Amino acid sequence: MNNKLIFELKDVYFSYLGRYPALCGIDITIRRGERVTIIGANGSGKSTLLHMLDGLIFPDKGTMKAFGSELNESLFNEEDFSVNFRKKVGLVFQNSDVQLFCPTVKEDICFGPLQLRVDKKVIERRLDELIRILNIKDLLDRSPHQLSIGEKRKVAIASTLIIDPDVLIVDEPTAGLDPLTTRHIIDLLLHANAAGKTIITSTHDLHIVEEISNVVYVFGQAARAKSWTIVNCFRQTTSYMYTATGIRVQHTHIPICMYIIMKKGSPLSLSLHGAPIVPKPLFLLSLYH
Length: 289
What we know:
CATH class: Alpha Beta
Number of helices: 8
Order of helices and strands: EEEHEEHEHHHEHEHEEEEEEH
Distance between the termini: 38 Å
Strand order of the largest sheet: 6-7-8-3-9-14
CATH architecture: 3-Layer(aba) Sandwich
CATH superfamily: P-loop containing nucleotide triphosphate hydrolases
Strand content: 25-35%
């Protein structure tokens, strides 16, 4: 196995209650150190994919590997495996209230590592660092449910980062936030990536995609219908290569109209290894049709 490969999904299907398709034939690979962003319309399966990567749900069909091992529900019944996986992968939910339930902010932040049997001195050291980075000292003794949306988001991210996971998954990191708080969250994600963490996000804030990503997966409405549509990508490419997930664009320059046909059952992958890439307005509109 490629030791840089963290997640590998092949022909993955998932539906809720066996009746409501959410993922249909997904093929995705995520490598160590990448900044991956999932974009697409509401209901296209973005959050479902993130929950699957965190081991909260599992494919109905197809295979999913993490760190070289195939994941299934029975593995998480083994305490050693479960603890080890939870130390490696951390998820920040879209709704911060889902993961904030302790009487105080400090207790909420420290809850996860205590359950994972992290040494208390290590927890205190990590807490002090997060307090400094996130500027949340004044929040520690407050009830999480008395905080603003932005403050809750910071605390939710802190409660995940304190575990020091190799992979940080964040669902809608900047949704509903003011520009200054958005800037702080973006800087935090970039800092975590610079420290060696793999960052996986989903977002509707398309203006931040360029900065927080070097790989973008586009999910369309057709995912629910087990097929994918033609996407208009206004982009000139100087080099590109086809992959199992679509087209990985390595270098980009001035916009031109280019039609990219997505492989049936697979999202389009844009790999941003050259000049900065910003999806253009007409391209962005096409994602939601």
